[in-house]
Amino acid sequence: MGRKEQLMDILANSQEPVAGRELADRLGVSRQVVVQHVAILRARGVEVLATSRGYMLPREPAPYTRRAVLATKHSPEETEEELFILVDHGVKVLNVLVEHPLYGELCGNLMLQSRMDVQRFLERVKAEQAALLSVLTDGVHLHTVEYQDSQSFEAALARLSEKGYLITD
């Protein structure tokens, strides 16, 4: 089995994203080789998601899972609170998307479903001294989310609205 096939096998058998460094170690190659293999797989039509926690293959949503797109606006300092509101209500945050005047849509895969996921993501933002995509659009951004319980989802929307984060018009 070639390295690209091994890479696919590792991702297919993982329930969580796998860090590029871990993939490199398991395949006995450099991190850059992993990036190249992922690029080749994508060019061949394989959908490989790059999240803040690593690479993963898309999963079929659980039965009765619904998707929605939320428009929100807040400062970078309010990001943790926004994400906690969502995950605390059982809402999985799949991505963040902004509309850039030059590049069009810019999307970052998040795959956040717990406070621990949110904390890890924000720690990584801080450690990498990275800017959130929403700073490009004065805090305005979209999230694609998944949820199973409509009442909890509506409660999350109400809380986001109370905080002034939800854009409804």
Please give a structural write-up.
This protein is of the alpha+beta class. The chain contains six helices and six strands; from the N terminus they run αααβββαββαβα. It has a four-stranded antiparallel sheet with strand order 3-6-4-5. A two-stranded antiparallel ribbon has the order 1-2. Helix 4 (79-88) packs antiparallel against helix 6. It has two domains: 3-56, Arc Repressor Mutant, subunit A (Orthogonal Bundle), CATH 1.10.10.10; 66-162, Histidine-containing Protein, Chain: A (2-Layer Sandwich), CATH 3.30.1340.20. The mean pLDDT is 93.
Which helices and strands occur, and which strands form pairs?
Blueprint: H1 3-12, H2 20-27, H3 31-43, E1 49-51, E2 54-56, E3 66-73, H4 79-88, E4 92-100, E5 104-112, H5 115-128, E6 140-147, H6 150-162
Antiparallel strand pairs: 1-2, 3-6, 4-5, 4-6
Helix pairs in contact: 2-3, 4-5, 4-6
